[in-house]
């Protein structure tokens, strides 16, 4: 039975009970009112009749009593003290008359009436006699005085005379009540059934939303799990295979960072529908969140079928996407897992496809089908994440190496760049590109940046105490530029180690500013105003133009080492380096060249007017004590400056 039907039945019972209750009360009211009205009429009649009574002699008084049978009266009697003097019932006289209730009130001078239903000791014999005949009587008690003798006249009327009027009124009331309650019941029922329908629709919608990814309209993870579980159960019976593909987009974060979340969202939507179109009826595409999509394939004959479908999905992404006036190239990596070969439950398939996807990403092979030997590879990557959390606070594991930078013309050391190193207890040295990427993805980058800043400034203070005046550059994550507390945090670190503000330089990547330019520029402004030198790191690899950088309160650009490496070829890289240096100089920015590995490159950069060089030619990044020794030794034996640099000075 539906909830609404149950409610309707319950209400019906309640309304019926309410109607019966109200009806009963009203019926009583009507009955009382009618009885009172008739009794009052009788009282008036008795009083009227009694007016002439005094003048009658005793024999006619008996008749007069009969005359009191006014209107509907069926009997009358007159009482003096406790003796019945006259009655019209022809009944045995002289029986005692009780002096309670209405009798007593009437004897005291107040006319009244009683509704007699059962004979009681309070009834005179005449009343008993009449009751036996009529079953219900209205007895009227009126004080009269006959010959100055106070007496009580009692007149009886059968209730039947009233009941027809009562029945008529009760009928009208019952009818009105029934109509009123029926209308109320129907209105309430309509209201409730309408609300119930609306609630059902809302529930359906909520259910739908709970199973759908709001951005793309594709099934979400919960939905996918549900479908997968059913498909796996069906396949078990039919002997076919179910495949799960996990797709992770390459560099999608850059799209968000550079073009904004709006474009990122539009792109995800377009990717979702293109994937579903490409897959057609062969399976279901779902979005798991972020830039992760999944596809569920049914009726597969072999894992190779799933691999083919995965390649078809990637091929569907090959054509560029036109989103919000931008043309975007999208690529991705897919991990494949198939039942029963790689697992028998959705959870197992997800784990295996995830492992395969990581391998596909790492090995640049765009599609990887799960194989047991892949497992160890990915497990180490996952444990790495947990290990990094602990490593950040462990001075044995997380250390800094420092790479010197030199003035291009004089060769004098102008500062060092602090570069994080992670010496893992079992895995050995893990390249910063790898663990910084993990830190960025997991939010560990903030504690890591804090720690690096603290260690670098502590080192500058230690060198200062040892007589080495060294400026340090610290790499800063894009996330720091979204943190309002970051400038204050830098100021606190400087104060804690008593390092002058001009001894600190922060390196930021150009893309860092693009994700939320407003907030990032505000934070950069605060940092610049406090006197910290700001550098754009890896210049040329991002998306921003020189015109954009002009608006940023930065002092320096660091041209990425890929362009410096190509300098010797005199190809496009050389042109990029040359024009970058020219533009930077025109904008009043200094230029650092990273990755200088040969004397020829140094000379070339000097000729182009680059201010500072950094690279293996000068030194690899070194532990702090080794760097101090290197600096001291260099002071004693200054290297030869590049000849062309001398020529231009
Ligand atoms: P980066 O900031 O551009 O640092 C320069 C990288 O170039 C360093 O790599 C350095 O060892 C390398 N390098 C220097 N000279 C040469 C050269 O002549 N030839 C070649 N081939 N390479 C050279 P490293 O130390 O592996 O750092 C890689 C990246 O990791 C850094 O690039 C930086 O983006 C990031 N990173 C390192 N430490 C930190 C850190 O503490 N915080 C943050 N947020 N990022 C860091
Ligand atoms: Mg750097
Ligand atoms: Mg760099």
Short descriptors:
single chain; 649 residues; alpha/beta; Alpha-Beta Plaits; TIM Barrel; 3 domains; eight-stranded mixed barrel; 21 strands; elongated; binds ligand C2E; binds magnesium ion
**CATH topology type of the largest domain:** TIM Barrel
Domains, number: 3
- Tell me the β content: 15-25%
| Whole-angstrom Rg | 52 Å
Biggest sheet details:
8 strands, mixed, barrel
What is the name of the CATH architecture of the largest domain? Alpha-Beta Barrel
Distance between the termini: 97 Å
Helical run tally:
22
Structural class by secondary-structure content: alpha/beta
What is the typical, i.e. mean, pLDDT?
A: 85
The distinct ligands, each listed once, are: ligand C2E, magnesium ion
Percent in helix: 40-55%
- CATH class assignment of the largest domain: Alpha Beta
What global shape is seen?
elongated
Low-confidence stretches: 643-649
Number of strands: 21
Word description of this protein:
- By secondary structure, this protein is an alpha/beta fold.
- It folds into three domains: 3-89 and 98-165; 221-372, Alpha-Beta Plaits; 389-645, EAL domain (TIM Barrel, Alpha-Beta Barrel), CATH 3.20.20.450.
- It contains 22 helices and 21 strands.
- The strands form four sheets. An eight-stranded mixed beta barrel has the order 13-14-16-17-18-19-20-21, surrounded by four helices. A five-stranded antiparallel β-sheet has the order 2-1-5-4-3.
- Strand 7 and strand 8 form a beta hairpin.
- Helix 10 packs across helix 11.
- The longest helix has 51 residues, at 160-210.
- It is elongated and about 160 Å long.
- It binds ligand C2E and magnesium ion (2 copies).
